[in-house]
Design brief:
The chain has 439 residues and is α+β, with helices and mostly antiparallel strands. Helices cover 31% and strands 28% of the residues. The structure holds one RNA strand of 77 nucleotides.
RNA sequence: CGGAGCGUGGCGCAGUCUGGUAGCGCAUCAGUCUGGGGGACUGAGGGUCGCCGGUUCGAAUCCGGCCGCUCCGACCA
């Protein structure tokens, strides 16, 4: 992509409403634009990141044996009356009425819809387990949206639902999601720590929130510092193998969010020098809820011995749009964003320092043409701007690599490669640079 | 929802107290010089001062109502 034609409305100054780095930088880097309170448009750069994160989530869901569906955003109120949640769900639910005076709602979540799909199609234990997921926009009319897309009213979410015959099966599904989440966040370069969370109506220990530690996070968290040093499981996982050892190692220490925190237990179980009290960003939540919806909605299956039982369910959510902010909170400096390669909007930024110089132009065009031809995601700053402006823009949008073509270097037959995260620079020939990225 | 603020060219702000020609920086456009960290100069365009009503000879400024947005708290991916 040539920057001269790319829609990238960057800001030099900090917008006054943005309080936290991710919000500030997303606005300054032209990734998002507010439409109304808690509702944003995603501009090209932001949209690319959103898509990349979405794709990682999708791949890991698929790898864990989930199947993608897409449920309606607008749901009938009757379904919610069946589960008993229509009256119970508060003002966060956006309620609508269609032209026939039917009560509708913009889905804040999809347990009812997915349970309805299940009950209409699955009747036998032989069709279990099943695990369906979707990635789509939700709307929750939050009292106070804030921090840009971190707490929007409209947000992009992956949610999935497991269906099993019995508790043992449900636990297996839960564990799969637990591991899938560890992998998903690790691939984005995030340290997400599974923390005990409010367990809801069923009780037990089958509810975890995955939390990125960050001072700007919304919730207070308490955990054992050793979690920070643990390998985030970047290598492959065989979901047919027992997952208990992985679960065990990730639950062996104390880690809890504010509403589940037990100070006495924290002090008893965690040595003083290992007690970490900080704040965190919740990016995922996994949850076992048994027959809470299947029972009232009549989602039953027939067992091997002919009994009819409500299906055991769990639900699992990842805040996809929130992750964009979380990745920025985890990776930025004074100059701007620092993307991990896995989610970067482009892998490489090419800077032609001197537009008026024929040699610079020729070398830059050649590099751009070659890499683009080999499907390298490259953003080429071919604007007629000063060198400083180009450096500033490139640092702001945070692409992992910058390839700098200037008259000084070209005279010596080299271009400069800069790594955004470390600011390490090396000079190399054009050929070497091409090989480095097209190889 | 309780508390606190803000709304003036695209962005950041001044002007409002004390009514009287709408202003600054950045951005934009044209041109020239530049070109290794948001460069310089010259010129230009762009604003019903959130909306409605009131007071007044005259309202960005005073009064009333409404709308929008932000921040702090209780809820949430």
């Amino acid at each position: 992509m040539r920057l001269s034609v790319y829609f990238l409305p960057t800001l030099k100054e900090n917008p006054s409403e943005a309080q936290i780095p991710s919000h500030r930088l997303m606005l300054r880097a032209g990734m998002i634009q507010q439409s109304s309170a808690g509702i944003y448009s995603w501009l090209p750069l932001g949209h690319r990141v959103l898509r990349r994160i979405e794709q990682i989530v999708r791949q890991e869901m698929d790898a864990a044996g989930c199947q993608e569906v897409l449920m309606p955003a607008i749901q009938p109120a009757d379904l919610w009356r069946e589960s008993g949640r229509y009256d119970q769900y508060g003002e966060e639910m956006l309620r609508l009425r269609d032209r026939h005076e039917r009560d509708m709602l913009f889905g804040p979540t999809h347990e009812e819809v997915v349970t309805d799909i299940f009950r209409r199609n699955i009747k036998s234990y032989r069709d279990l387990p099943k695990n369906l997921y979707q990635i789509q926009w939700k709307f929750r009319d939050e009292i106070r949206p804030r921090f840009g897309i971190m707490r929007g009213r409209e947000f992009y979410m992956k949610d999935n639902f497991s269906f099993d015959l019995d508790f043992e099966g449900a636990k297996r599904s839960y564990n799969k999601m637990f591991v899938a989440y560890l992998r998903t966040f690790a691939r984005m370069g995030l340290k997400a720590i599974p923390m005990e969370a409010k367990s809801g109506p069923i009780g037990g220990d089958m509810s975890h929130e995955f939390v990125i530690l960050a001072e700007t996070g919304e919730s207070a968290v308490y955990c054992h510092a050793d979690y920070l040093d643990m390998d985030m499981l970047a290598e492959g996982v065989d979901y047919t193998q027992a997952l208990d050892p992985i679960i065990a190692s990730w639950t062996r220490h104390y880690a809890a969010t504010d509403d589940k925190h037990e100070p006495e237990r924290f002090e008893r179980e965690v040595p003083e020098d290992k007690r970490l009290t900080t704040r965190g960003i919740e990016v995922g939540h996994i949850f076992y809820f048994g027959t809470k919806y299947s029972k009232p909605m009549g989602a039953t299956v027939t067992t091997e011995d002919g009994r009819e039982v409500p299906v055991e369910m769990g639900s699992y959510g990842i805040g996809v749009s929130r992750l964009v902010g979380a990745v920025i909170e985890a990776g930025h400096d004074e100059a701007g964003i620092i993307w991990p390669e896995s989610v970067a909007p482009f892998r490489l930024g090419l800077i032609n320092l001197k537009i008026g110089d024929p040699a610079c132009r020729k070398a830059s065009d050649e590099i751009y043409g070659t890499l683009k031809g080999r499907d390298v995601e490259i953003l080429y700053d071919d604007r007629d701007e000063s060198a400083g402006a180009k450096f500033a823009t490139m640092d702001l949008i945070g692409l992992p690599w910058q390839l700098i073509v200037g008259p000084r270097g070209l005279k010596a037959g080299v271009v400069e490669l800069k790594e955004r995260a470390t600011d390490e620079r090396q000079e190399l020939s054009v050929e070497a640079a091409l090989a480095r990225f097209a190889g």
